[in-house]
Amino acid sequence: MRRINSLYGRIGRASEKPSKSCHAFIAAPSFSTDGGYGGGGEFQQSSSRVKIFDRDLKRIHRDRAAWLSRHKNDTFLDAVAENLLDRLEDCKKTFPCALCLGGSLAAVKRLLRGRGGIEKLIMMDTSYDMIKSCGDAREDSLGSSVETSYLVGDEEFLPVKESSVDLIISSLGLHWTNDLPGSMIQCKLALKPDGLFLAAILGGETLKELRIACTLAHMEREGGISPRLSPLAQVRDAGNLLTRAGFSLPGVDVDEYVVRYKSALDLIEHLRAMGETNALLHRNKILNRETALATAAIYDSMFAAEDGTVPATFQVIYMTGWREHSSHPQAKRRGSATVSFTDLQNQFGGAQS
Q1: Which intervals hold domain Methyltransferase type (predicted)?
Q2: What domains does the chain contain, in order, with CATH numbers?
Q3: What band does 81 get if pLDDT is binned at 50, 70 and 90?
Q4: I need a labelling partner for 86 at 20 to 30 A (CA). Which of 212, 214, 259, 306 fits?
């Protein structure tokens, strides 16, 4: 478990030195690799698909976050991106063409530092403002040899051709998709054989303190419960998601970050700056002022430390998967074993009484 003290109060201002590189901003038509193509792909969704999040509202949240976090380094987002990118150092192969999806784009871009042997980097987000902010940031960490382009697109309808990239990175972005398995399937199809998928999403234990405070405040002030925090994937689901998407050699691990704030209101401001505020499609659009104040008071009374700060837990699930390739270890065909368990028991366990 990691602890990050006074995160929001210590966000530093980065240098505003203008970048000398030229950037290509592309507004590409979205398409889905499962059939929809071109602009019409967005309107060919199956009517049976369950919609949980308001994607238009989430894009607005991303626009707002782009300006709230402009020229600022977020310690929490940096820690998650650094942990995710560390996995590239464990790989002997290089990834000439990489695609970075949504989430903490600026942190990934700044902390990449030549890892993975990337020569071409595509940064994609649903928010034009976020893409513009990322493009305006300095590129000292990437190096002059990396060709960087910027793309406005949707993770639910990935605007990338099949078998076109070597690496896909998503740091804290995919948990806002309505069809997470479908988005991961599209990522797998976009990868070349032996391509790598790296993703970090928020897990179900995220903001457990805030969930408790919200529930108690709603019950006290309104006599019922109204969903104020979005549902998130559980750790047990992550491996199933990778397997369902068809990734080879799936890997999942979990980390918890405890961030301390001066008050519950500072936590809310930080969530706004990250673009992580509520985007449920069937949400209550009106928050009673008394309920909001009661939530903050309950949060402080239940979880405040001796120094007056309040903790917030962020559970991060890291997922790793490869697109299948002949070089990957393959499971033996069922029934191909040449030694039975009975023979093994007789050989190694026969002496036991």
Answers
A1: 106-198
A2: 55-206+231-259+313-323 (3.40.50.150)
A3: very high
A4: 259
Whose tokens are 């990934």? That residue is 108
pLDDT tens by residue, 104-122:
999 999 899 888 899 999 9
Amino acid residing at 260: R
User: Are the C-beta atoms of residues 168 and 98 closer than 8 Å to each other?
Assistant: yes
Q: Which of 105, 209, 108 is nearest to 155 (CA)?
A: 105
Between CA 108 and CA 158 the distance in angstroms is: 19
